[in-house]
Design a protein that fits this description.
This protein has one domain. Helices cover 79% and strands 0% of the residues. It is flat, with a radius of gyration of 16 Å. The mean pLDDT is 76.
């Protein structure tokens, strides 16, 4: 279990667990198919998995649509590497982008 916890970094924790919990919380109001667990470990694992699956779906569906309609634009990867060497806050902003991207997908999925 300690090895598993070591491999989960801040990016995975924020972008999978928190949106997964938010989605599970609102889903528990709509239907009886998903209930909030009383066991803390089961709750963490379910919410992490829900967040992981929804994040992958968002990356495969929503992100290509946003780039196709030119709502977001990606730069070349080598430009990102050079800029992140100069400014460390770029990685933090990328983390925030991914977090809000997942929450945006959840709002579309929930509606």
């Amino acid at each position: 279990m300690d090895e598993l916890i070591k491999h989960i970094d801040k990016y995975n924790f924020i972008n999978y667990l928190i949106p997964g919990f938010v989605f599970a919380y609102f889903q528990s109001f709509d239907s009886q198919t998903f209930t909030i667990e009383t066991n803390f470990i089961n709750l963490i694992l379910k919410c992490y998995f829900i967040g992981l699956v929804n994040s992958r779906i968002a990356s495969l569906i929503i992100q290509p649509l946003l780039t196709k309609f030119k709502i977001i634009k990606f730069e070349e990867y080598h430009d990102f590497i050079n800029a992140s060497k100069i400014d460390d806050k770029i990685n933090t902003s990328l983390l925030c982008y991914a977090f809000y991207f997942c929450l945006t997908y959840f709002s579309y999925l929930y509606v």
